[in-house]
Amino acid sequence: MAEEKTNTPPEIIKAEKKPSMFNPKVLMIGLPIFIVQLVAVYFITANVLLSSGQSGPVKDENQTEEHSEEPTGGHSGETEEGKTSESGESGLIFSVDDMIVNPAQTNGKMLLLASLGLAVENEESKKVMEEKQVIVKDAIISVLSSKNVTQLGSSTYRDTLKTEILKNLAVQMPGSKVNNIYFSKFIIQ
Length: 189
Description:
alpha+beta, Tetrahydropterin Synthase, Chain A, 2 domains, 16% strand
């Protein structure tokens, strides 16, 4: 029997060995791809956090101006940006989280991830939004999906986008009382 093993051709012996689990091609190709993805996620996250961090102090200044105007004779029934209402309560925010939309003219190759907060006037409006959440999402998706990537990527176009969403919500839900829209996530990939 020992003679049979020595007479066996080397190709048969190599075929009997189990292939190793480590493949150096995976390391050489996969590691650079992983690093590129990691860097891309870092820059996207940094830009989103920086843009939301810069808009934070501006909103705080607007809040102090609104509060200082009201005691000096401002009409307390007005609810600019959903900050105050007649009873002095803070405004209510109805949030629509993590909506994924295909922008126009991308053939499904690009995605927009957006989360919004809708400033509503009172608890009743918020309940209506919760009950008709599908209609709210449809109104938002129809506006976002009708825009191309250059429009969505422009930071100056976001105010126009907000007004278009407000108009579409008013058409879809005539009784809705949305004062403002806030983007908490807006990522194009």
